[in-house]
Amino acid sequence: MKRENLHEPFSIEVIETLDVCPKSGHTHNFFELVYILSGTGTQCINNNTSRYHEGHMFLITPEDCHSFQIETTTSFFFLRFSNIYLQSNSIHTDNVQRLEFILQNANHQPGCILKNQVDKSLVHPLIEAVIREYVNRDCYNRELIQHLVNTLIVVVARNISKYMPQQVGEQTDEKALDILSYIQNNIYYPEKIRTEVISKEFGVSESYLGRYFKRQTNETMQQYVSSYRMKMIEHRLLHSDMRMGEIVTEFGFTDESHLNKFFRKNKGISPTVFRKSSRMPV
């Protein structure tokens, strides 16, 4: 299976008309946002399929296997960006943790990621503006494109964080979404995601918070926190060269032994073994 690489922080490509997709199933080491400017067909991600049409936007994360089957002539907009770009100072630091939602809350399934109707109407003119700047190449176009790209990424992060976690359904209360967002934003600070702290933050008792969270998400708060931390740590192991000591510091573990114990409990192997085995060539 072909694997593509990105050798710059981000790139833009506009393909105006395609009747047949030139690529079969493939993976890559970067994130890819695909927006359908026109046309219809089927998208495949990890052997799951979904129909697409004009106005749909898809997020393909690193290592996802994906392809398109075109039914009517399709125009695509591609925005590709690397993990390095997310971690760079190009994006305001207040948004970096929100952008982690892209990395860890995407469900690796096909289908349009824009669930918020307001954002759907926002994305189209943003992409038109990016294409216009990309084609015209006027002065300061690079700076303008970068700001527009950052806005698109944050809009996608907002949709994923509020509407796409697997444990959240259409009937989930707004307060439950706020609690999830709070946990995700503070996952690096164990003292801020204790039950007693969260209950004070949202003005409810600890006992009620536990029952409410389980009813809304079908898992306990402790299960969700552990699961989300694991996803974040796995991402560091797979897609960065961070040392174990740096991961320990970032996620508030007392030492490497504490990290190893947590990881083994959830994964059955040490983080070092996980990193080595996951990076073995196929």
Automatic annotation (TrEMBL):
Domain named HTH araC/xylS-type: residues: 177-277
Keyword Transcription: yes
Gene3D superfamilies: Homeodomain-like, Jelly Rolls
Name assigned to this protein: AraC-type DNA-binding protein
GO molecular function annotation: DNA-binding transcription factor activity; sequence-specific DNA binding
This protein's UniProt keywords: DNA-binding, Transcription, Transcription regulation
Domain of life: Bacteria
